[in-house]
Amino acid sequence: xxxxxxxxxxxxxxxxxxxxxxxxxxxxxxxxxxxxxxxxxxxxxxxxxxxxxxxxxxxxxxxxxxxxxxxxxxxxxxxxxxxxxxxxxxxxxxxxxxxxxxxxxxxxxxxxxxxxxxxxxxxxxxxxxxxxxxxxxxxxxxxxxxxxxxxxxxxxxxxxxxxxxxxxxxxxxxxxxxxxxxxxxxxxxxxxxxxxxxxxxxxxxxxxxxxxxxxxxxxxxxxxxxxxxxxxxxxxxxxxxxxxxxxxxxxxxxxxxxxxxxxxxxxxxxxxxxxxxxxxxxxxxxxxxxxxxxxxxxxxxxxxxxxxxxxxxxxxxxxxxxxx
Length: 324
Ligand code: SR1
Prior knowledge:
The structure is a single chain. The chain is of the alpha/beta class. The protein has two domains: 16-115 and 254-282, Rossmann fold (3-Layer(aba) Sandwich), CATH 3.40.50; 118-252, 3-Layer(aba) Sandwich (Rossmann fold). It contains twelve helices and twelve strands. Helix 2 (57-70) packs parallel to helix 3 (82-94). The protein is globular, with a radius of gyration of 20 Å. The protein binds 5-S-methyl-5-thio-alpha-D-ribofuranose (SR1).
């Protein structure tokens, strides 16, 4: 990479190498996150190498080791299982490599944690569910434990149920694999066969929501169900805004912005600056009505309509160029 005029060392000379080691690399969220990271890396003259995840903890661990051996200056660890990563992350730190974690709690004071304010995100989606459906309804819940963002969203689901005893969780399902949406769709069919009285589904990951919609559309029950989710992509916007869609709201950041923030955080560490320990990108609530009323069809339309969605001032510095 080229040097960046006016930037602190080593960015003034260029040639900075960073690895992004992912756990999940498929799906809209992770693709947009990676594209955002790559765009911010390019603007900083960073050579960013992305290691593709296969939902395989041992493989991800090995990729962190590979990155260390490649002599990178920084590593971003994106999701994963803390127990498989903590010691290799420490090994990277011991080798003088700066480490940032997104959505995986490495529990290390030297490793800044990037997240989307998952508590706020879940609250926004669930407040909309309460506003639309009242305080008493039969719910389905899509959840897989062990993912930091899903565990944080789950804390809010527990709180909301506790505060509203009229919400009855009739069934819980979910899968995270390389075909999350279709696996979730299969499970959704079974859940609705056993519990046809479910009217609200909380599915706080867009691949989950996509799976639930697939299943309710196929079963011809989309007019009896409402889906509340996390995340957004252009494909999601199409699904949400479609006529008769049961997917009525999502709380989301722009994942490309989260990718940019992650790269800025590691760049600041490499330059000897402190990006802060908890780096938060705030979500916004997006409803089906908002999308339809404002003719929003793409993530770019959302960026243009909602400035709070299109950029974040987390981990910025005067020498770090903004991504266009
Ligand atoms: C399996 S974890 C999926 C979540 O990670 C990110 O936080 C996204 O928001 C997505 O919902």
